[in-house]
Amino acid sequence: MGGQVAIPIGWPLAPDAFALAAAVAIDFSAGDPEYPFHPVRLIGRSLNVVEAGLRRIGVQGYGGGIALFILLAAIWIAAVSLVVWAATAAGSWCGWAAHVFVLYSFIALGDLLRHGRDIERAVAIGALQDARRRVSKLVGRDTEPMDGAACRRAAVESLSENLTDGFTSPLFWYVIGGLPLLTLFKVVSTMDSMIGYKTPQYLRFGWCGARLDDVMNFVPARVTWLLVAAVAAGLPAYSGRKALRVGLEQHALLPGPNAGWSEAAVAGALGRRLVGPIWLNGRLVTDRWLGDPADPPLEDARDYERASRLVAIGGITAAVAAIAMLLP
Predict the structure, then answer these.
(1) Closest CA to 161 of 112, 125, 120
(2) Backbone angles phi, psi at 27, to 5 degrees
(3) Contact 44, 190 (CB under 8 A)
């Protein structure tokens, strides 16, 4: 038909460079505000409902966890698809805006950087209790024994780990499969965060979500290691070579197959040691340090600012690379 532009059948859900650029810009400028109907919160609520239903009918153990994943994935991929398609039916710009909203809701780096800055401000003015309270929202450890330096290290550890979980992994799966694969990743990530625990209740039921999270973060975690090293190599007062070496040598010091890659790389790039003594339920669970043994621990405000800058530039670099891959 003359004068009309055909929209590809997969367009509303397919990866789009301009939508990604808009979503990243909103994330860095506005963060990720908390509100009752945030899509990730809705996934969490639906998980609770489906889990309760499965347990009520006796579907538990490994099979219950697998059934939970299948049901949540089907529900949320269908829901996101229907919302975006319905918006597109109202107009192409409405569909594009819905696409951007979902994409923005499923990436999270700007808000994490903002939360880290709040911890740093609290430590800087001596409001240690406030800093500990804010740290407790990011990490699962006792915060009462933590001094200001430990609060800063916890913030940097969370930033570096979530550079993978909250940003490069979502970008990776979005570039490969658009909104459907991004939604699948967020379902798996939510399962891991809510039920991926080795407790009597979830040891078997949460196994599927935990292992799928390991699988879906496997490649992005190693890409993030290389990303941190490349960014550090291009910045003054950072070490790309040490980021590569420490990441390769010490990634396995942290639990799980993925978290250690970006954390160790950041420690190497900064020339500062992370982690240190960690207490849980009143018991010292580790006093192991991450980083070159010859480097000092991360302690002061300057250390934190350098870490925050590295993570922010790393995230922007990842976004630019993803956008470039999607351009025609």
Answers:
(1) 112
(2) -60, -45
(3) yes
pLDDT band at 10 (very low <50, low <70, confident <90, very high): low
- Residues 158/138, Cβ–Cβ less than 8 Å: yes
Read off the pLDDT band of 251 (50, 70, 90).
very high
Planar angle of CA 94, 99, 101, nearest 5 degrees: 95
Chain position carrying tokens 């976004």: 319
- Measure the CA–CA gap between 194 and 251, rounded to whole angstroms: 24
**Helix residue spans in 59-206 (DSSP H):** 61-90, 92-105, 110-124, 128-136, 148-163, 169-195
Contacts of 165 (CB under 8 A, 6+ apart): 189, 217
CB atoms within 10 A of CB 219: 15
Which structure tokens are listed for 251? 């990634």
Neighbours of 200 (CB within 10 A): 8
Lookup: tokens for 116? 């880290």
Confidence band of 9 (pLDDT split at 50, 70, 90)? very low
Interatomic CA distance for residues 318 and 172, integer angstroms: 9
CA distance between the termini of the chain = 24
d(CA 320, CA 312): 12
Instruction: Say if pTM beats, i.e. exceeds, 0.90.
Output: yes
Q: Which long-range contacts (CB under 8 A, 24 or more apart) does 273-277 make?
A: 273/297, 273/298, 274/153, 274/156, 274/157, 274/160, 274/298, 275/153, 275/157, 276/150, 276/153, 277/145, 277/150
Residues contacting 328, CB < 8 A, separation 6+: none
- Please say whether the beta carbons of 220 and 262 come within 8 A: no
Q: Are 276 and 77 in contact (CB under 8 A)?
A: no
Give whole-number Cα distances, 46 to 22, 200, 292, 296, in Å: 28, 22, 44, 45
d(CA 198, CA 201): 8
